[in-house]
Amino acid sequence: MEQPNEEIRRIQFTGKSTYIVSLPKKWVTALGLKAGSQIIVSKQNKSLILTPKEMAKQPAQPMEATIIISNIDDPDAIARKIISLYLVGYNFIIVRAKDERISALQRNTVKELARKKLVGTEIISETSNEIKLQTLLSYPELSVENALRRMCLITASMHDDAIQALKELNKKLAKEVIQLDDEVDRFSLYIIRQLKAAVQNEKILKGIGLSNPRDCLGYRVIVKFVERIADHATKIAEHVIALEEKPSEAIFQKIFEISAFAKTSFEDAIKSLFKKDYTLADQVISKAKTIPHLENEAIKEIQIKTRQVDIPSMRMIMESIRRTAEYASDIAEIVLNLNVNQIITI
Q1: Which strands, in side-by-side order, build the sheet including 92-97?
Q2: How many Å apart are CA 232 and CA 84, to the nearest integer?
Q3: Report field, pTM of the whole predicted structure over 0.85
Q4: Residues linked to residue 43 through DSSP beta bridges, in sequence order
Q5: Which of 57, 130, 193, 282 is the most buried (most CB within 10 A)?
Q6: For residues 187 and 166, what is the distance between their CA atoms, to the nearest angstrom?
Q7: Domains, the chain, ordered by start
Q8: Helix, strand, coil percentages for the chain (3-state, nearest 5)
Q9: pLDDT by residue (tens digit) across 316-327?
Q10: How far is CA 292 from the centre of its chain?
């Protein structure tokens, strides 16, 4: 059924190798075109896009948005607005005070956000009542795959360090793990921004290192799962800080074995993603099913051989290790969906 802005035209064959299609007169005249005007034909996914050559020459205008704030606005709420604008692709974000000036707390929040969370974003001007941010990074400089690889490496390192902090009851190391969570969030927000743009533009899709628009949703979910694994590494570190004494060698060894299992599951899930390995992803899912049993065995030991005051924190540490393995399994399921063509017999 035709829509108001659609018309059905039949493709015709002329000469020996050319197909032609006629254009509605009212559309041609509305765009100021005439016989002899040049049209650029481009392929986008499964559609053909016709663009008048003169219009194609016009450079895309940077997207700009302004947020008006008052002194009573919550700094965290302002940060969430900026993140939302960053994710949908705005190049310039202006934070402007409705009153005489931006408060010191609000100003510091915006600066910390730009520095810690928004990849490629800088403050390019600042006055008492206005802060202007610009996202400078262009797509080819950091592909989605490279950003995700970096994000995964940091996450795996956080998990390792959190477990090491548990072994030694090293609270300084645990605090360093917590601080690294901001770095994971930076890459997460950057990747999501790129994926949102890529869904709408095939050139951007190729530029960020993906081949198919449907991959964007899969990568979007995987990024969220990696972020959750980093959150659990942070939770392990927080519970290490709460402990009064380090676990016994026997208990730590059991925790370490389960932790190594969870981390290997995560690394194999990511490896299966980048190698497009359906079989490896399937193996991750199968192995991850054993993690609840391993967790229950460890908790029994913890309840018998751990000081009563430390049992709640140790149980939460075990839960975070289990959730790491489960999120690895979730990532592997997405890999199966992205590579399901490997099991189809033609």
Answers
A1: 64-69, 92-97, 130-135, 121-127
A2: 24
A3: no
A4: 48
A5: 193
A6: 27
A7: 12-57 (2.10.260), 64-135 (3.30.110.20), 144-343 (1.20.58.220)
A8: 65, 10, 25
A9: 999 999 999 999
A10: 28
